[in-house]
Every structure is written in structure tokens, then in C-alpha cells.
């Protein structure tokens, strides 16, 4: 049961301190006073109206928020759902089987970001009668609060609709409108989402029997972080299309001449279509984290630990050279496992069984940033006296190697600066204003990162030397 005090508590903790990822869960309950709105930085945020005359809801509102006080952790949710039939790993969460592979039937791989499994699994659940509808992100629906948005969550019920939701949208989306529709429209659903969004769905299901009954499967995406709308705007602007002219964007255009991680970005306006290799555009260094939500720096769920299946890119030497893209897949639900194995036996999927260590290796940088360095970022917030969400790890002022601390501080600086500098650039109608603010900090970040690499290499060499001294028979 939530009253004005609980609404205010969510507002004063998660939202006021910048930890709202804009998932929309708190705006789903019928009587909820929250609504979703886009802020000036191009991020969805939950908004509590100022009038303070609120109806009660039967939901404990802080417990539906992935960052809310008292909400169940990914470990608790995963344990309840998967413990009986899965093994557990601290990096990946619960798992049944891990694969690397792609879809061979239809145009799933061609039209997907990676191996096409994201769209395929939704379509397969639909085609085999496990669900009646899927909830995915499409470009033909707009956002729920702003029709100018380029992408939004919607309900799809045919292959064509499911497939038009293919590709990764590094763009804000929110679930409140579509989940309200699920509550009012009987049927069986599967939903795809980023780890924190799937956690929100699970938290809602813990309190809402209707959503628990109707949403039968949750598919997750491996997640580095989420971007504001300004990320898309900044790429388009560099390619000669001003933000207000941007009509569509494809963040993952495959390049047949290059490895899978050397993809391009394409943008269109009413009179222009441009395609540029993504690594030639400023702001696309994911480690630097331009336009990242603050919440993402305080999230340690990379492998969508509460989802029945999680899909990502197989960023592994054995697969990255294939320009068509290869998925990394971790399963947690017996029905999904069966659906995948059947399709594999019918030759519709090409899959290698991989170890959980390989799955972890495929997301090495993301896991180090999110599962290790999060303790140091928590410590810095604590030291300022700020409220922080309860995480599975404790704040820590030690981060090793020690010089990694500076890199973390520069990443935070870049995140904050990117949002502010782009708003200034928009006001001045001058992309250079954004670049001029970002470049000095980015250069320092790169300089520090490369000297950090050199130092790591030296450290590695020292360890090898020591090892050579103590292990007889090892040749230099
Ligand atoms: C913000 C973001 C960050 C990511 N970070 C990583 C990462 O660090 N490492 C990694 O390996 N993979 C990451 N991914 C996942 C990766 O980009 C691919 O989406 C994934 O490999 C699936 O590719 P596919 O070809 O199988 O899927 P496709 O067939 O292309 O289908 C993609 C599916 O995801 C849905 N979708 C797209 N964007 C969103 C969104 N924003 N929210 C919810 N659903 C969406 C689509 O509706 C579609 O159903 C990220 C994806 C997103 C959206
Ligand atoms: S539930 Fe989602 S939208 Fe609401 S405050 Fe939490 S993160 Fe923000
Ligand atoms: S990094 Fe975490 S909080 Fe950010 S979008 Fe991904 S799952 Fe959500």
C-alpha cells in the first residue's frame, strides 16, 4: 500500500538524486501519481506532481523501482525464479546453458544487430503458441509521451511487427504505457528489455497478479549503459543533419568488409541519408560514456540476471571477425532452452556451446566497470553525503590498480559534462560548443587510459618475470 509519504520517499531518494533510469514501472499502477516525461537532457524521468493530493495504490511503490529502497535485488529475484534448475555465477547470475551463435533461417540475422536471436526468440515464442503478443521496441510508434521520439515500446502480434523491432536502440524508452495496455488487454505476453527494465517487470509482477499471469517470458539484452536522445542527435549533427531534422537512425549497420564490432551508423532527414563508420564519430567510445544515464553507473546487472534468456554480442576473438554478427546467449528458462535446442536440431540456428567463462570474457570491460568499479563510485557518492541505492556490493575507497581511480573520476566527469555541454550547444545552435567542452576532458581520459594500459603491461611483465623465476624449466 502506498500513500503520499511513500510517493514522496521515491521522489526524494531515487528521482531527486538522479538515479531514475526512466523505466516507467512506478507509473504503471492505476492510481499512481507518477507520470513519465522527457527532461531537457533527453532522458525519460518519473515525475511526481507538486499538488500532493494523491490516491492510495495497493502497490508498495518503492519496491517496484529497480533502484528503490527495499526492492528485491537481482540475486533475490533470480533465486526465486531460477535456483531449482540453474547454476549460479556472480558475474552472470543464474544460468542453464551458454551459447555463441546466430539464426540461419529467414532474415533475422541480416536485419538484427548481432546474430538476430533477439527478434528470433520473440517470434519463435509467438509462432509456437507460447505467447499471443510480444512487447518490443519499434521505430514506427514514437515515444509514449512525445511523438517526436524515434523509438518506443509497443505490442507486436505478427512476424512483420516483431521483425520491425529488430536492431539495438541506444535510445530512451519507457514501459508504463505498454504495461498499462497489458493490464487492460487479456493475453499471454513476452517482453524484451534492458536488465533494469526486466528487473522492473519482475518487481511489478511480485505485486501485481495480473502482470504475473500475463507476462510469461522476459528476454533480456546484455547492457553496457543507456543513452539519452542526445546521443542520436549528436551523431546525426556530426553527419550533417541537425537534431530537429533527424527522422531515423540505425545505430548498427553491418559492414561486410569489416569485423562485427566495426559497424556503421546511418541517419536520415527528409532530404539526406548518411552512413558513417561509427568509430569515426565523436562520442562513440562506450568506455567514456557520453550521454549515459547516472543510474547506469550505479547498476551492476550486465547479463539481465532476472530474465529467462539474455542476448548480447559475442565480443570474442573466435566470433568478432564475422561481420554478420554473432550472439552470446545465456538461458535460464526450461521452455526457452527447449525451443532453442529444437531449432538447433532442425538447422535453424547455428550454435556453439560455450563455457560461462567465455560468456564472461565477451563482456570483460563492461563487467569490470559495472561489477568492480561500482564500489568506488558508490564510495564517492557516500563521501559527498548523497543518498545512494542499496547495491549488492558495499562502497569502497580502494580500487585496484590505484590509477584506475582517476579513470573512473574522468568517466563520471565526461558523463556529466556531455549532458550539460550538449544543451548549451543546442541553445547556441553550434555543435562545436559541445566538442570544445568535451575534447579537453576526453583527451585527458584517453591519455590516462593509454598510460594505464602501459602500466598494466609493465605490471603483467613483472608478474611473468616473477613466475619465470619460481617455476623451474620455464624458458624466457
Ligand atoms: C542500450 C543497449 C546497450 C547494450 N549494451 C550491450 C553491451 O554492452 N554488450 C553486448 O554484448 N550487447 C549489448 N547490447 C545488446 C546488443 O546491442 C544487441 O541488442 C543484442 O546482441 C541482440 O542482438 P540481436 O541481433 O540478437 O537482436 P535483434 O534481432 O537486433 O533484436 C533486438 C531486440 O532488442 C529490442 N531492443 C532494441 N533496443 C532496445 C531497448 N533500448 N530496450 C529494449 N529492447 C530493445 C528490439 O525490439 C528487438 O526485439 C545493448 C543493447 C542496448 C539496446
Ligand atoms: S520505477 Fe523506474 S521510472 Fe520510476 S523512479 Fe524508479 S527508475 Fe524511475
Ligand atoms: S546499465 Fe543498468 S541501469 Fe543502465 S540501462 Fe543498463 S541495465 Fe539499466
Secondary-structure blueprint:
Layout lengths: L3 H12 L19 E4 L5 E4 L26 H9 L4 E3 L3 E3 L1 E7 L4 H4 L5 H11 L5 E6 L13 E5 L2 H5 L12 H9 L4 E5 L1 H13 L1 H6 E7 L7 H10 L9 E6 L10 E6 L2 E6 L31 E5 L3 H4 L6 E5 L2 H12 L3 E6 L1 H6 L2 H9 L1 H10 L20 H25 L2 H40 L6
Parallel strand pairs: 6-8, 8-9, 9-13
Antiparallel strand pairs: 1-2, 3-4, 5-14, 5-15, 6-7, 10-11, 11-12, 13-14
Helix pairs in contact: 15-16
Protein described:
The chain is α+β, with helices and mostly antiparallel strands and 476 residues long. It folds into 3 domains: 4-227 and 291-364, no CATH class; 229-280, no CATH class; 398-470. The protein has helices at 4-15, 74-82, 108-111, 117-127, 159-163, 176-184, 195-207, 209-214, 229-238, 317-320, 334-345, 356-361, 364-372, 374-383, 404-428, 431-470; strands at 35-38, 44-47, 87-89, 93-95, 97-103, 133-138, 152-156, 189-193, 215-221, 248-253, 264-269, 272-277, 309-313, 327-331, 349-354. The protein has an 8-stranded mixed β-sheet, with helices on both faces. Strands 10-11-12 form a 3-stranded antiparallel β-sheet, with helices on one face. A hairpin with a 3-residue loop joins strand 3 and strand 4 (93-95). Helix 15 (404-428) runs antiparallel to helix 16 (431-470). The N and C termini lie far apart (68 Å). The relative contact order is 0.13. The structure holds flavin-adenine dinucleotide and iron/sulfur cluster (2 copies). One iron/sulfur cluster binds at residues 10, 14-15, 20-26, 46, 64-68, 200. Pfam families: FrhB_FdhB_C (PF04432), FrhB_FdhB_N (PF04422). Residues 188-354 form the Coenzyme F420 hydrogenase/dehydrogenase beta subunit C-terminal domain. Residues 98-179 form the Coenzyme F420 hydrogenase/dehydrogenase beta subunit N-terminal domain. This is Coenzyme F420 hydrogenase. InterPro entries: Co_F420_Hydgase/DH_bsu_N, FRHB/FDHB/HCAR-like, FrhB_FdhB_C.
Amino acid at each position: 500500500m502506498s500513500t503520499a509519504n511513500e510517493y514522496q520517499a521515491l521522489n526524494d531518494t531515487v528521482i531527486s538524486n538522479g538515479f531514475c533510469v526512466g523505466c516507467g514501472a512506478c507509473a504503471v499502477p492505476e492510481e499512481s501519481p507518477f507520470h513519465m516525461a522527457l527532461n531537457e537532457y533527453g532522458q525519460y524521468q518519473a515525475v511526481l506532481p507538486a499538488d500532493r493530493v494523491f490516491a492510495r495504490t495497493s502497490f508498495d511503490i518503492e519496491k517496484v523501482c529497480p533502484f528503490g529502497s527495499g526492492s528485491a535485488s537481482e540475486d533475490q529475484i533470480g533465486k526465486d525464479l531460477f535456483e531449482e534448475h540453474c547454476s549460479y555465477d556472480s558475474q552472470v547470475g543464474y544460468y542453464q546453458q551458454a551459447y555463441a551463435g546466430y539464426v540461419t533461417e529467414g532474415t533475422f540475422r541480416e536485419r538484427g544487430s548481432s546474430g538476430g536471436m533477439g527478434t528470433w526468440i520473440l517470434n519463435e515464442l509467438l509462432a509456437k503458441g507460447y505467447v499471443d503478443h510480444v512487447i518490443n521496441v519499434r521505430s514506427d510508434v514514437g515515444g509514449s509521451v512525445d511523438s517526436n521520439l524515434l523509438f518506443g515500446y509497443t505490442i507486436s502480434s505478427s512476424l512483420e511487427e516483431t521483425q520491425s523491432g529488430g536492431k539495438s536502440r541506444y535510445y530512451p524508452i519507457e514501459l508504463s504505457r505498454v504495461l498499462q495496455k497489458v493490464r487492460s488487454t487479456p493475453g499471454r505476453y513476452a517482453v524484451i528489455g534492458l536488465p533494469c527494465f526486466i528487473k522492473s517487470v519482475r518487481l511489478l509482477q511480485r505485486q501485481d497478479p495480473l502482470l504475473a499471469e500475463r507476462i510469461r517470458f522476459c528476454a533480456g539484452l546484455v547492457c553496457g549503459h543507456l543513452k539519452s536522445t542526445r546521443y542520436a542527435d549528436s551523431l546525426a549533427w556530426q553527419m550533417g543533419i541537425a537534431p530537429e531534422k533527424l527522422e531515423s537512425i540505425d545505430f548498427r549497420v553491418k559492414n561486410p568488409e569489416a569485423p562485427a564490432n566495426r559497424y556503421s551508423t546511418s541517419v536520415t532527414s527528409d532530404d539526406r541519408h548518411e552512413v558513417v563508420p561509427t568509430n569515426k564519430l565523436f562520442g562513440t567510445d562506450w568506455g567514456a560514456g557520453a550521454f549515459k544515464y547516472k543510474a547506469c553507473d550505479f547498476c551492476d546487472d550486465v547479463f539481465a540476471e532476472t530474465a529467462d534468456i539474455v542476448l548480447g554480442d559475442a565480443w570474442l576473438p573466435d566470433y568478432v571477425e564475422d561481420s554478420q554478427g554473432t550472439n552470446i546467449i545465456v538461458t535460464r528458462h526450461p521452455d526457452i532452452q527447449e525451443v532453442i535446442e529444437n531449432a538447433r536440431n532442425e538447422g535453424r540456428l547455428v550454435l556453439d556451446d560455450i563455457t560461462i567463462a567465455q560468456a564472461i570474457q565477451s563482456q570483460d570491460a563492461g563487467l569490470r566497470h559495472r561489477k568492480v568499479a561500482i564500489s568506488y563510485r558508490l564510495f564517492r557518492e557516500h563521501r559527498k553525503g548523497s543518498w545512494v541505492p542499496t547495491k549488492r556490493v558495499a562502497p569502497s575507497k580502494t580500487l585496484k590498480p590505484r590509477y584506475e581511480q582517476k579513470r573512473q573520476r574522468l568517466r563520471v566527469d565526461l558523463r556529466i559534462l556531455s549532458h550539460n555541454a550538449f544543451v548549451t550547444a543546442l541553445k547556441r545552435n553550434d555543435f562545436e560548443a559541445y566538442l570544445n567542452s568535451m575534447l579537453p576532458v576526453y583527451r585527458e581520459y584517453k591519455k590516462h587510459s593509454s598510460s594505464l594500459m602501459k602500466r598494466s603491461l609493465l605490471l603483467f611483465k613483472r608478474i611473468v618475470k616473477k613466475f619465470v623465476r619460481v617455476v623451474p624449466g620455464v624458458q624466457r
